[in-house]
Task: structure prediction
Amino acid sequence: MKVFAHRGASGNFPENTKSAILEALKIGVDGIEVDIQSAIDDYMVIHDSWLDRTTNGTGKVNEFDATTIAKLDAGNGEQVPTLQQLLDWNNDKTLLNLELKHAFELEKFVSQLEQNISAGKISCANILVSSFDHHQLLWLKKRLPWLKIGALTSSIPINYAKFAQDLNAFSVHVDKNFINKAFADDAKQRGLEIYAYTVDKTQDIALMREYGIDGIFTNYPMQSKAYLLSLSNK
Ligand code: G3P
Ligand code: CA
Result:
């Protein structure tokens, strides 16, 4: 089962910051999940559409420019990274799952990905764009047919993973509280990977493994990896 660092190694470092991302890289995760919000002039790595919870700033991310946001403290004196900083730090070492939260003007996002691919900063295989906004995913998949997209849900749809297959998605990302064996089996039968979020407790990790889930998003990637290793050694 794959282990993705959720908002970086956010259980031990401020979420979506450089330290959380570098720690995840050090651990050797299968991928790093981060959240993307649009600022006025750039894409920022931050979960909420408001600055208030994770920084010492206040107000909506999309009402400030990146330079202003960079002056804020995102925890332990760290900054809110830009998408470009994330791509630079990662330098194609692992898969990046970019979860689009409130991201606008996606043509700019597309250009940035294409420029980074051309510059060798990231390979197509290491990009997975996910979102709860399936309209944006549909648009992106049409615009970039090679792009791996992950359809997010926090429900058990009547037709299970059909909505993700209809999007031509690579994967379906499901709230661990709304996942079961039937959903997992259906996703597999449709040729999709199925990942669960956010899975930190050993009991939940074991359950996801039992369901045949392909990967978990965890705030504690080191501990989760160690636990999975202990299970496979049994
Ligand atoms: O991408 C999986 C998960 O992160 C989605 O929920 O609120 O943690 O971004 P949230
Ligand atoms: Ca997320």
Observations:
- Residues 24 and 168 are 29 Å apart (CA to CA).
- The chain has one domain: 2-232.
- The mean pLDDT is 98.
